[in-house]
Amino acid sequence: MKEFHGVIRVAQLDRNKRPLAQLKPADLAACLSEDLQACVCTIYGDDGQSQQAVLAKLFLLPETLYYHALEHRLELAVAGPILRNDCPPLTYRLQGKHFAVTGRCSMIPKVCGVDLYLQASYTGELGAVARQRFAFDVKKILQTYK
Q: In DSSP terms, which residues pair with 133 in a beta bridge?
């Protein structure tokens, strides 16, 4: 299940130093955009020895970080090489300075309990460049903490 981490900490980046409960979606989006400027998405698998294996590290494509004010949606895309292909992708972590999103992922469409289906560019071939898009409903995130 998708989980958001560090929302309260990121809200402290607000220029006007307002508490999280007083922020509007655009305010939180500005804080998240600042926090995610150098974000990295790590895709993990299980190597069968109960250890998390890093399968790919995907880095922010800066020109893709955008806030849609009417829809209260923050979008971004990440890309990077596939580092391992000896086990299937199971989990992911998109990490900014303080804000992070974690959850389950899969290359196979329609798998139950997965909140991120990896795009077709995630081929599982070593060295291939994978791209992944993310979109967050900032208004929903804000409502969770009010």
A: 77
- DSSP 8-state symbol, 82: B
The residue type of 59 is: F
The model carries a pTM of 0.92
Calculate ∠ Cα 73-118-143, nearest 5°.
30
Counting Cα atoms < 13 Å in the Cβ hemisphere of 46 gives: 8
Residues 6+ apart with CB under 8 A from 86: 45, 47, 53
**What's the first-to-final CA gap in the chain, in angstroms?**
21
Whole-angstrom Cα distance, residue 143 to residue 118? 27
Q: What is the pLDDT of residues 46-69, one digit of tens each?
A: 877 767 899 999 999 999 999 999
